[in-house]
Amino acid sequence: MTNQELIDRYPWLRVSNRWTGKFVEDADWTELDDMPHGWRVAFGEEMCEELNQEIITWPPSAQENFRITQIKEKYGHLCFYTNGESKRFREIVGKYTIKSKTTCIGCGAPARWISRGWISPWCDDCARENFEHVNGSYSAQTPWEEEYIDINEYYKPYEEED
Ligand SMILES: [Zn+2]
User: Which end of the chain is more exposed for a tag (fewer CB within 10 A), N or C?
Assistant: First the structure.
């Protein structure tokens, strides 16, 4: 879907002025543009559709006043901020936040690695590509896997706590 098609279908995805709350007129970008490419490919539009099904049940005034303040990646997972939302909305975002942890931010494939330093999930191909891009010729001597943590190791402690 193009941004214009997204805006036509989901007006709440429009970019707004953070101070006045006014939508930016005639902008051809959306709040979804700040989402990492891989996540947008994997579940961006699916998430918008689900959120929209919830938003259209809200009273008209709540729908009119609703604004996204930011959609981004932080600590390897999706962060979605708004100026106020329903419990159901938060549940939907929570579901995709969990999904984002194991989805490659580069291409949307299932992630196998977590990068060290800047924590992000990567698939095999993107992890190697990303490593070579960052390290250049250095990559010939160092196995790229050493720069990453196996995703099953990384998320293991959290799963056991649950
Ligand atoms: Zn990938």
Answer: C
| Cα–Cα distance for residue pair 29/15, rounded to 1 Å | 7
Widest Cα–Cα separation across the chain: 60
The parent domain of residue 14 ranges over 1-101
- State the amino acid at position 122 in one-letter form: W
CA–centroid distance, residue 68 to ligand 1 (Å): 27
Ligand 1 midpoint to CA 108 (Å) = 6
CA dist 114 and 130 (Å) reads 12
pLDDT value of residue 146: 87
Tell me: do 19 and 82 sit in the same domain. Answer: yes
Point out the residues of the chain with pLDDT beneath 70. Answer: 137-140, 157-162
Whole-Å CA distances, 125 to 63, 85, 102, 113, 151: 41, 37, 15, 10, 15
**DSSP strand E in 27-162: where?**
68-74, 77-82, 113-115, 121-122, 148-150
